[in-house]
Design a protein that fits this description.
Helices cover 31% and strands 26% of the residues. It has 324 residues and is an alpha/beta fold. The strands form three sheets. Strands 3, 4, 5, 6, 7, 14 and 15 form a seven-stranded mixed beta sheet that branches. Helix 7 links the parallel strand 11 and strand 12. Helix 3 packs across helix 4, helix 3 packs across helix 10 and helix 9 crosses helix 10. The longest helix is centred in the last third of the chain and has 17 residues. The radius of gyration is 19 Å and the shape is globular. The termini are close together.
Amino acid sequence: MKALLCKKTGGIFDLVLEENTLRSLESKEILIQVEACGVNFPDLLLVEGKYQVKPSFPFSPGAEVMGTIKKIGNGVEMFQIGDRVVSGTIFGGYSEEVIGNENNTFFVPKNMNPIVASASLLTYSTAYHALVDRASLQKKETVLILGASGGVGTAAIQIAHHLGATVIAVTSSSEKASFCKQQGADYVFHSEPGNIKENIAEITHKKGIDIVYDPVGGELAELYVRTLGWNGRYLIIGFTGGEIPKIPLNLPLLKGASLVGVYWSGLVKNDPAKNRKNYALLTNWFEKKAIYPTVTKTYSLAESPYALSDLQQRKIMGKAVIVV
């Protein structure tokens, strides 16, 4: 089978499409014939050698696939050959076949397009885990979402809006601002500092933000910590800005605030039952169209490096998908 392979840490365009052979299945594993694979920021970090998981070379990026089960390993109880599923794989998805684990594999939501289904797992599970499990979001709270036009950002906008929060999106252009409004944002700010503190004070009647949702990190993180109100929660999702910020700990102390780590892969590993329950709820919302993945670009398997390049250059709003 063909796969887009990374043979060394380096540039996106060092990836090569060639024949590859997968290892034998281990207990609780399944072999999936891939139809589509969501494109996510961790894919880029894997190729660059900057992600916390470092697979052996050669490997294929791709953490979120939709396809049909072709073979099952020992101990698999929930699925059969021929089932159509979505699966979180960490890596391996930019290929015609990938090995997934039963613990992080789910039936495709009813009546969902395969391409859209491939964009339904990683970002929405991350956003739900962040806002509900980690931040205990309550109706009418104010949520400020950084990097709001990207995959985890748009998922967070939709989920926070559906749960009755006031949603403030932070993004970098008027086009992206309009896109965030379409996803359910109540207010949109430009990512340059400007008058953000004054605008937030006006929106929140000087109470401050209840939850900051940050997949970006970078030099502006301290500014957004300062926007938190009493008992605020700062959700640390990732560092797409490249820089891991250093936050003065007196800031959360004086606000009675919390800096909260969000690591969805950790949930999958440590509490798979909770993860399955979360995705079952998301599936229900997908089927009702209460929330729904927004796929704005598709690429062929051979075009995958261009997908990663567009992601790196912040050209993708919502989600991009590799169609195999």
